[in-house]
Amino acid sequence: MAVESRFVVIRQGVEVETFMDKKAADEYDKMLDMADNLAEMFEAATLNIDEKMREELSIYLAKNREEVLVALQAKKAKPATPAKKTQPKVVSETKPDLTNEATTEVKTDGAPEQKTEVKKAKAPRKAKVSKTAA
Fold first, then answer.
1. Which residues neighbour 101 within 8 Å (Cβ) at sequence distance 6 or greater?
2. For residue 33, what pLDDT is reported?
3. Residue closest to 61 by CA, chosen among 85, 32, 90, 88
4. Three-state secondary structure readout of 36-48
5. Which pLDDT score, from 0 to 100, does residue 104 have?
């Protein structure tokens, strides 16, 4: 038998929406709270807005609260798409030993493969002492 956890948003005794995770249910409930507050504000205003339009407008503004905050200059707009620096991705790598060169294939986004050779410095050799006949 499978067990499922469901989170139900209930408003005025009526099930409004069902979610599979708590975070989504909480966000939806918060949006509905904001919409209720906006509807009360519109009702108290001297504007002639019928109940259906007031409800639709309140829900629209609550769903798009980030854009509303930017429009009210209460929040700064986020840049559309920040430019990201592309870093090369290492595809394969050969570990160098003391005598060999290592070749690493590097793939950059949108660019053809490049091969970079890395030379490992060799340790200096000790001088040979020659034995000469005396």
1. 117, 118, 119, 120
2. 93
3. 32
4. HHHHHHHHHCCCC
5. 47
Containing 91, the helix (H) or strand (E) segment is strand 89-93
The full set of domain ranges for the chain reads: 7-71, 89-119
DSSP 94-125: ----SSSEEEEEEE-TTS--EEEEEEPPPPPP
What number of residues does the chain have?
134
3-state SS, residue 73: coil
pLDDT tens per residue across span 40-90: 999 888 888 888 999 999 999 999 999 999 888 878 888 777 666 666 665
- Which pair of tokens denotes residue 32? 């509905």
Residue labelled with tokens 């006949």: 133
pTM across the whole model: 0.53
Instruction: Give the pLDDT confidence of 85-108 residue by residue, as tens digits.
Output: 666 665 555 554 554 444 444 455
Count Cβ atoms within 10 A of the Cβ of residue 29 and give its class: 0-12 exposed, 13-18 middle, 19 or more buried: middle
SS3 33: helix
β pairing state of 7-11 and 101-107: unpaired
Give the SS3 label for residue 51. helix
